[in-house]
Amino acid sequence: MASLLLRSVIGTSSMLVALLAARTTPADPGKPWFLGKPPPVTQTMKSVAARGGENPCSTPDPGFGAYRPWSKLSGSGQALVPIRITLTAAGEFDLVIHFHGHEPARKEWVRVMKREVFVGMSLGERSGPYEAAFTPADALSRVVAEVEQLVAEKAGKPAHARRIALSAWSAGYGAVKAILRTPYGKKRVDSVFLLDGLHCDYAGDGLDQTQLEPFVGFARRAGAGERLMVVSHSSIIPPGYASTTEASNFLINTFGARPKPARPRPSDPLGLELRSRFDRKGFHVLGYSGNGTLDHCAHLGLLRDILQVHLAPRWKSAP
Asked: Would the pTM of this model clear 0.85, i.e. be above it?
């Protein structure tokens, strides 16, 4: 799994170093502010030693906690079902589906969660396969139906998904983008977490806004308090397409705002250093320094904090 994480980083560290000098300047005069590149001060590559000896791309394995081992789903999905299944009086349970890096996400999940059902799915190193797999309008509903059947078998009685959250790291954002375009996704998805994975292509002198439209729509609903959306970005500057910094700042710009400077927090995991943030009701953007492989992997460590600080209070089912 460590090698998979390393390969999935957007661009190699050597490529980033080679491009660094030309890609850390602010946006050209007359261009929108969100097209500015991360400044030189953010272009850091902390060693494992500087992170307290913990490698973000290969963190210690805590096991399965309050959960049974992975249950295989059709395709590439796997599910974690609690050992003690707790259903509502109506036979409902809450579900989080994570795309890309399901094993490291599982390590964060089992440390804080006990009741909700977790599904992990890894489909490759690029966003294309994720987007293609969930472009069909019924793709997510088929996954949910299969999980409902699994939980029902384990519980010994009918079970149905109540609230659904989508989580994605890196390339996994492609699945979220496709799902949020479907009527089922717009209706059923309550929360979205994007961990250093929101990208898009350039179009002319700006961003390809059509690729960001599903996220813009969900961000507005979150900003109105109807949904929950948490987006994190590193300061990696990829070759030839928009960085997570630019794409995240574009979302903030739709509110007519800019991110505010922030200081590193003790709760930030695996050597991450917070530099900026934006909060509007249920919409949150966290910006971090770092342009290397370890920094990219470290964003998976944010999942634990997101679950505790944001999702649990919203769903009123604190771990």
From this structure: yes
